[in-house]
Automatic annotation (TrEMBL):
SUPFAM superfamilies from the UniProt entry: Pseudouridine synthase
Record domain tRNA pseudouridylate synthase B C-terminal: where: 185-244
Role of this protein: Responsible for synthesis of pseudouridine from uracil-55 in the psi GC loop of transfer RNAs.
The name this protein goes by in its record: tRNA pseudouridine synthase B
Gene: truB
Source species: Acidiphilium iwatense
One function term, GO molecular function aspect: tRNA pseudouridine(55) synthase activity
Domain Pseudouridine synthase II N-terminal: residue ranges: 36-184
Enzyme Commission number, as recorded: 5.4.99.25
HAMAP family assigned: TruB_bact (MF_01080)
Keyword tags: Isomerase, tRNA processing
Length: 311
């Protein structure tokens, strides 16, 4: 009797993060596919989609790091974009078709006055060309088919929105620090409307995602030059726990770490005096360390520390 052949998993097991400086003109999915081929990696994902027009920090998760993607997505993101006044486009960026024009060009005072309404907790209508699902269809598919959906506004958190440059009357440069799921294209579109004109994003760069910054980013060309050896280069592939660097650290004993790893919860009473000031005791995350070694990601719930993710 012939035994059925077992299907071998393709690719090498590589665990860690690559901080990619995504070039313009490709999607985040294409960047993931290229890195998967370059490293012959078995499992690859990314932490936060960038539009094809956009450049900058795209965290690439390898192997066990893919389990950390939700926490990266929740981290603060820093962007710089150029707003082009006078032209509205169907995609809300330079890749789209012009759908409206205006001769109005705001001065700096008008821009600064309008920015106040776009800081803090706001409601934002996503771009019609976005990956949001509408009755099972992607919004961008509907928009490309000539039936852009009427998307409802969604909550968005804008921690910082600053005017940093004005190269000419047609353009203004901004930096934005925001939470999860905020669309820079919507910010640009809505700010232009608020000042009595129309506009779109002419250039967009992401400067940081959580603990990952552009200073630490590498390029596809450098990865291609390194080939498979990139997987063992600590300057290119960073440890899995790097993604958690901006989560408050909690010192644990070996016994406490073992208990959490086994699914047990610890009382906050037993942890008093060690809970970091930056940690939120009501639903907040902490990075549990046994010595200097990452042990477990835990969350405070109902007076207990419960394990959320164990590597």
């Amino acid at each position: 009797m012939t035994r059925p052949q077992t299907r071998q998993k393709r690719g090498r097991k590589i665990d860690g993060w690559i901080v990619l400086d995504k070039p313009p003109g490709i999607t985040s999915a294409h960047a993931v596919a290229k890195i998967k081929r370059l490293l012959d990696a078995a499992k690859v994902g990314h932490g936060g989609t960038l539009d094809p027009l956009a450049t900058g920090v795209l965290p690439i998760a390898l192997g066990a790091a893919t389990k950390m993607v939700p926490y990266i997505m929740d981290g603060t993101k820093l962007y710089r974009f150029t707003l082009r006044f006078g032209e509205a486009r169907d995609t809300d960026d330079a890749d789209g078709a012009v759908i409206a024009t205006s001769d109005a060009r705001p001065d700096d005072a008008a821009i600064l006055a309008a920015l106040t309404a776009f800081r803090g907790a706001i409601m934002q209508v996503p771009p019609a060309f976005s990956a949001i699902k509408v009755e099972g269809e992607r919004a961008y598919d509907l928009a490309r088919a000539g039936a852009p959906p009427d998307l409802p506004p969604r909550p968005a958190q804008i921690d910082r929105f600053d005017l940093i440059g004005r190269p000419d009357p047609d353009h203004a440069i901004f930096e934005v620090a925001s939470g999860k799921g905020v669309y820079m294209r919507s910010l640009a579109r809505d700010l232009a409307r608020a000042i009595g004109t129309v506009g779109h994003i002419a250039a967009l760069r992401r400067l940081a995602v959580g603990p990952f910054t552009e200073q630490a980013a590498t390029t596809l060309d450098k990865l291609a030059d390194s080939g498979h050896s990139a997987a063992t280069n600590p300057d290119l592939v960073r440890p899995v726990e790097t993604a958690l660097a901006d989560i408050p650290a909690l010192a644990l004993t070996e016994a406490e770490a073992a208990a959490l790893r086994n699914g047990m919860a610890l009382s906050l009473v037993d942890l008093m005096g060690r809970i970091p000031a930056a940690a939120n005791p009501d639903g907040g995350l902490v990075r549990g360390l046994a010595g200097r070694r990452f042990a477990v990601l835990g969350r405070f719930v109902d007076g207990m520390l419960r394990p959320e993710r164990v590597l």
